[in-house]
């Protein structure tokens, strides 16, 4: 017979039991310490205990919140601005070189449409995947089960309710593709970067 935690991670209906409640309580203590930390060294040390499945060069601005932390997988060179929330009742996989603006919410948690089932305390979660080289603008919400492809930009204030492909600019509520990212876009910004680097 499956445990509630196993059901949760399998995307099935589950109810928070003593095991899950204990894990969340332990994580809340770590989160509280992280959000009170005043030095970057201390923050870096604490975030490694909260999110053990993370690459190198991870920087998260406090305040930050997540349910468990151990279900979050971060690639290298990750940055999250203030007020990031990750509801990781299911797995969150984020690639390399990902930038999150302030107040980005990544929500794997879902609730049944049936009020009777919902009121019984049952819930479920669906995993979220964000590819490499993605920039998510501030105040964006990413809903359960969504995949965002690599090298994509999500505009501020978006509500991402379905998959977004790679190499596009997408925005809106619900979030939709506005256009592809072109070679001209790359050249424009690379030329500007070259000009900046030449300034003495």
Draw up the topology in text.
Layout: H1 4-9, H2 18-36, H3 40-50, E1 58-60, E2 64-66, E3 72-74, E4 78-80, E5 84-87, E6 92-94, E7 99-100, E8 105-107, E9 109-110, H4 115-119, E10 124-125, E11 128-130, E12 135-136, E13 141-142, E14 147-148, E15 153-154, E16 159-160, E17 168-171, E18 176-180, H5 183-198
Parallel strand pairs: 1-4, 2-5, 3-6, 4-7, 5-8, 6-11, 7-12, 8-13, 11-14, 12-15, 13-16, 15-17
Antiparallel strand pairs: 9-10, 17-18
What can you tell me about this protein's structure?
This protein is of the alpha/beta class and 200 residues long. It is built from five helices and 18 strands. Strands 1-4-7-12-15-17-18 form a seven-stranded mixed beta sheet. Strands 2-5-8-13-16 form a five-stranded parallel beta sheet. β17 (168-171) and β18 (176-180) form a beta hairpin. The chain starts with a helix and ends with a helix. The mean pLDDT is 96.
């Amino acid at each position: 017979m499956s445990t509630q935690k196993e059901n949760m991670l399998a995307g099935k209906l589950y109810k928070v039991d003593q095991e899950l409640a204990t894990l969340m309580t332990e994580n809340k203590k770590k989160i509280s310490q992280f959000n009170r930390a005043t030095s970057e060294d201390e923050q870096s040390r604490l975030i490694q205990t909260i999110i053990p499945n993370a690459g190198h060069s991870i920087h998260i601005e406090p305040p930050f919140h997540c349910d468990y932390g151990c279900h979050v997988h971060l690639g290298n060179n990750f940055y999250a601005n203030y007020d990031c929330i990750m509801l990781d009742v299911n797995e969150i996989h984020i690639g390399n070189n990902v930038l999150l603006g302030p107040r980005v919410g990544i929500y794997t948690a879902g609730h049944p449409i049936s009020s009777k089932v919902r009121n019984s305390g049952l819930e479920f979660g669906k995993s979220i995947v964000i590819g490499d080289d993605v920039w998510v603008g501030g105040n964006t919400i990413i809903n359960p089960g969504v995949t965002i492809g690599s090298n994509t930009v999500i505009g501020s204030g978006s509500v991402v309710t379905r998959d977004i492909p790679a190499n596009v600019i997408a925005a809106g509520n619900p979030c939709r593709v506005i256009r592809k990212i072109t070679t001209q876009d790359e050249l424009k910004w690379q030329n500007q970067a070259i000009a900046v680097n030449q300034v003495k």
